């Protein structure tokens, strides 16, 4: 199988990830639930992962690395913990993991505005964020990279804008983690950076991370057993415990640790460069096919390793199914981000999304192009 759906989850992992999950299942119990060897082994593996992530993102204190079960949980914790009333500004390319929590807060009087700018227009997006700010704005949320189009948002400049206005920023790094650097020590307004473990960090499903990079008060939305301060009925106030209720996914975190080590060893720039080269090749070849619209930036620096395209002659789900039959894994539809499609003008039909990973090859890209041409020939006599 040619796997080109790494924006959903990285299917191919470094071998050390599989070994770490297996070994943790055999050797580890729960963190903070005992003083015996197996509990200590679990605590050591979890702390190792905190230190690897802290090094990758320049977080001084590893205890500011919060483990969740995916980026959606992290984003819910950040958004609902910071915003209890007032107004939020988000980009027009956000995932439902941002939009739906905000919609759920509307019953408490919260409102939000989407800063909408043309695809790949970083300066335009920044200006739209500025224009959307109101006196009652209490939170700004932005994804670093669109999960549909791979467009890169200027989050460092947005952080400066939020600092200027005294506003907290939450960054959704779901599609940038493992490929685009973020230096938490240089971000002044950013309160949380949220990301999954199972995409560009090459960890298992069921792992997520919330980097607490700020100092603002944030309420918890989940309370329970933490293995600490058990005599109190109140949630602990120290981190990471105040955000980590319940038993951690120790095996998943052990695997994630090896995934992060892989990223640090390979280098984010090197991984991103390979993915971008494949995306540029795929996009340029798709543009040669009659009836195909490719959503690719003229400036390679404005787009990550995610590419969307659509066919005039075949619905995107039909084309993706044909590619699947040919052994090519891509994703089609709205990608849990209808707002992004509305902003880009691809709603309601959606797009076919291609997202290579660290283990994707030039041959994979060539097989995709061959399969797209073949599917269109079968589906439409006029396709080439």
How are the SSEs placed, and which strands pair?
Elements (H helix, E strand, L loop, with lengths): L1 E2 L11 H13 L9 H21 L7 E4 L2 H12 L4 E5 L4 H9 L6 E5 L6 H11 L4 E7 L11 H11 L3 E4 L17 E7 L11 E5 L37 H17 L1 H19 L5 E4 L11 E5 L4 H10 L2 E2 L1 E3 L4 H7 L6 E4 L7 H18 L5
Parallel strand pairs: 1-11, 3-4, 3-5, 5-6, 6-7
Antiparallel strand pairs: 2-8, 7-8, 9-10, 10-13, 12-13
Helix pairs in contact: 1-7, 2-7, 3-4, 8-11
Feature tags:
384 residues; alpha/beta; Aspartate Aminotransferase, domain 1; Aspartate Aminotransferase, domain 2; 2 domains; seven-stranded mixed beta sheet; four-stranded antiparallel beta sheet; globular
Structure, described:
By secondary structure, the chain is an alpha/beta fold. The protein has two domains: 2-10 and 267-379, Aspartate Aminotransferase, domain 1; 15-266, Aspartate Aminotransferase, domain 2. The chain is built from eleven helices and 13 strands. The chain has helices at residues 15-27, 37-57, 71-82, 96-104, 122-132, 155-165, 250-266, 268-286, 316-325, 338-344, 362-379; strands spanning 2-3, 65-68, 87-91, 111-115, 137-143, 169-172, 190-196, 208-212, 292-295, 307-311, 328-329, 331-333, 351-354. Strand 3, helix 4 (96-104) and strand 4 (111-115) form a beta-alpha-beta unit. The longest helix has 21 residues, at 37-57. The mean pLDDT is 96.
